[in-house]
TrEMBL record:
NCBIfam families: rmlD
Source organism, top-level taxon: Archaea
UniProt organism field: Metallosphaera cuprina (strain Ar-4)
CDD domains documented for this protein: dTDP_HR_like_SDR_e
Gene3D superfamilies: NAD(P)-binding Rossmann-like Domain, UDP-galactose 4-epimerase, domain 1
Protein name: dTDP-4-dehydrorhamnose reductase
InterPro entries the record matches: dTDP_dehydrorham_reduct (IPR005913), NAD(P)-bd_dom_sf (IPR036291), RmlD-like-bd (IPR029903)
Residue ranges of domain RmlD-like substrate binding in the record: 4-278
């Protein structure tokens, strides 16, 4: 069945790939503010909450994928009012408007809802964010559960891909360019996540929406590997045939971040492996090989 999909954050790292993947079989209307996406889109400032209600009312989507957020972790710590507005208040209005029009709401959340003490978090584990970004995303999850009668909360982790996130390179693209230019980089060894290729995330999400009929649940949609930033960087260098000796191990205490980062926020993907039949979580080498194939013509 062809669905009408309203996608917020359509110009972002995840949004651009979701739009590309979903547009192969569904009608996608992307919403953006500053980073212009491709395809069918509308420009709107969702921080003006009346715009949220207006867009959902006019488009009448079957599915709303809410991928827009303030994801800059340090910016959230610096400007808590803005973070609350964009990550909580906007989400509340989207949940209410989606519910009013009978739309399935897909809320893109994060591994940062966890404190990082144990890692390999399951969907049922108790969230306990240690920075304001994680707190606002958790509050967004709760707004979705309280205000929508048909929802999926899809948590992901450390997304990367062949397209920049707005005007800024994601970690993988940044690293590829640095290594190509023979520049040394410092990468932390003591932060473990589940790095997720945006293509993989979009394919898993598309299959989930198309094939899974019972909604109102949380699912971890990440790739399968649980690695440190340093391990990720070394594997990327190997796949891209770059000089991994340029990568210097360091620790989070040596990086001047304003917000705390969880030490091990990796996500368990057993549920995704059980639910999905075709597009399951990838291991790191599989994902990096796909990334390489996607940017083979990219001048990085």
């Amino acid at each position: 069945m062809r669905l009408r999909v309203l996608l917020t954050g359509a110009g972002g790292l995840l949004g651009k790939k979701i739009s590309q993947i979903f547009s192969t079989s569904h009608e996608v209307i992307g919403v953006y503010n500053t980073s212009k996406p491709e395809g069918n889109y509308v420009m709107s400032d969702l921080s003006k909450l009346d715009n949220v209600r207006k867009i959902v009312s006019e488009i009448k989507p079957d599915v709303v994928i809410h991928a827009a957020a303030l994801t800059n972790v340090d910016k959230c710590e610096e400007d808590k009012g803005l973070a609350k507005l964009l990550n909580v208040d906007v989400t509340r209005e989207i949940a209410k408007s989606s519910n009013q029009h009978g739309s399935l709401l897909v809320y893109v959340s994060t591994d940062y809802v966890f404190d990082g003490v144990k890692g390999n978090y399951r969907e049922e584990d108790e969230p306990n964010p240690i920075n304001f970004y994680g707190l606002t995303k958790l509050q967004g999850e709760r707004e979705v559960m309280e205000n929508s009668s048909s929802f999926i909360i899809a948590r992901t982790s450390t997304p990367y891909g062949s397209n920049p996130a707005s005007e800024k390179d994601n970690f993988a693209l940044w690293l590829i360019k640095k290594l190509k230019n023979n520049e040394k980089v410092n990468v932390v060894t003591d932060q473990i996540t589940s790095p997720t290729l945006n293509t993989s995330f979009a394919l898993m999400l598309k299959e989930l929406i198309e094939s899974y009929k019972r909604y109102n649940f949380i699912i971890h949609l990440t790739d399968a590997s649980q690695v440190s930033r340093y391990e990720f960087s070394v594997k990327l260098a190997e796949v891209f045939e770059s000089n991994k000796e340029l990568i210097t191990p360091t620790t989070m205490s040596e990086i001047k971040w304003k917000a705390k980062r969880p030490k091990n926020s990796s996500l368990n993907v057993e549920k995704a492996n059980n639910v999905l039949k075709v597009n399951r979580p990838l291991n790191l080498i599989e994902a990096l090989k796909i990334l390489k194939s996607e940017i083979i013509d990219l001048n990085v």
